[in-house]
Amino acid sequence: MSMITLDHVSRFYKEVPAVEDLTFQVEKGEIFGLLGPSGAGKTTTIRLLTTLLPVQSGSAQVAGHDVTKAGKQVRANIGYISQTGSSDRTRTGRANLRLIGRLYGLSDAAIKTRTASLATILQITDILDRRVSTYSGGQKRRLDIALGLLHQPTVLFMDEPTTGLDPQNRKDLLQYLKKLAGNGLTILFTTHLMDEADVLADRVSIIDQGKIVALDTPDHLKQSLQGDILTLSIGAHDQTVALPLDDLPYIRNVHQLSAEDFRMEIADSAANVPEVFQRLTTAGLTIHSFSITKPTLNDVFIARTGHAPITSDTQETK
């Protein structure tokens, strides 16, 4: 059963596409990741699906309801955890949870029970009666997650969910989200962290400049690359260097990452790296360093887009 459906969805800002022709489905109980750099269109996609932005072209449904025609029903079925959070800093954590519960029509008893359960799981019990303004970044993020889950939504949207969490809390959260999905919750999350998508997502949509460039399971995407990843540093150059490797059948997708660094896919690296090095040396190039690794989602991104997933400290506007 599809809980999220996008059919050729586009959104423009001053005639510039923020997202363009997005088409995908997310099934019940699936964890689906939108993976890409800041400005790729991930946040815009979530805002469209949560009715915070109108769909300008195409159509989208969430929990069986059209986001344009049945926004109220969509909002009743979803939880949304934004990048910046939704808590009132002047209230206590408990008061924030009580307010959200009442907005969703929960009884006082249900609010109390859900608050206690989520506070225990997310390790915020001892700070619930403090004002949110006194929370650390990680504590505030865990409260945000509790707010998004309090009313037991059928679909959960999370924009950069692990922002502000330390490594242990991040690990605990990812395990908790997997448990929720196992119980039937559908989760769509955005991230620019390749390892996070690899660990958490059942399927990943890699998005760049508003367009989907790849969509599959993390394992299938990595397996789509040829063999291992060979990264070379051959010293600084003032202009692009053409490596003398074009005719080698076991080399694919050569990219120059910087003035010195090159990345390529190589089949049977143990057997073929010596010939690569011989070619480069004969051409007068000096190899300063190299590494051979198994493909990652970062490598998939580079292969599909031709550039590294540059991120920024500014909030995504697309």
Describe this structure in words.
The strands form 3 sheets. Strands 6-7-8-3-9-10 form a 6-stranded mixed beta sheet, with helices on both faces. The protein has a 4-stranded antiparallel beta sheet with strand order 2-1-4-5, covered by helices on one side. The longest helix is centred in the middle third of the chain and has 16 residues, at 167-182. The protein is of the alpha/beta class and 318 residues long. 33% of the residues lie in helices and 27% in strands. It is built from 10 helices and 14 strands. The chain starts with a strand and ends in a 13-residue tail after the last helix.
Percent range of helical residues? 25-40%
Task: Give the strand line-up of the largest sheet.
Answer: 6-7-8-3-9-10
Order of helices and strands: EEEHEEHEHHHEHEHEEHEEEHEH
- What structural class do helix, strand and pairing data support? alpha/beta
Biggest sheet: strands, sense, closure? Answer: 6 strands, mixed
The outline comes out as: elongated
Our measurement of the CA-to-CA distance between the termini, rounded to an integer number of angstroms, reads 29 Å
- Number of helical regions: 10
Task: Characterize this entry briefly.
33% of the residues lie in helices and 27% in strands. The protein has 318 residues and is an alpha/beta fold.
Describe the secondary structure blueprint for this structure.
Blueprint: E1 2-13, E2 16-27, E3 31-35, H1 42-49, E4 57-62, E5 65-66, H2 71-77, E6 78-81, H3 93-103, H4 108-121, H5 137-149, E7 155-159, H6 167-182, E8 186-191, H7 194-200, E9 203-208, E10 211-216, H8 218-223, E11 228-233, E12 251-256, E13 261-266, H9 269-282, E14 289-293, H10 297-305
Parallel strand pairs: 3-8, 3-9, 6-7, 7-8
Antiparallel strand pairs: 1-2, 1-4, 4-5, 9-10, 11-13, 11-14, 12-13
Helix pairs in contact: 3-4
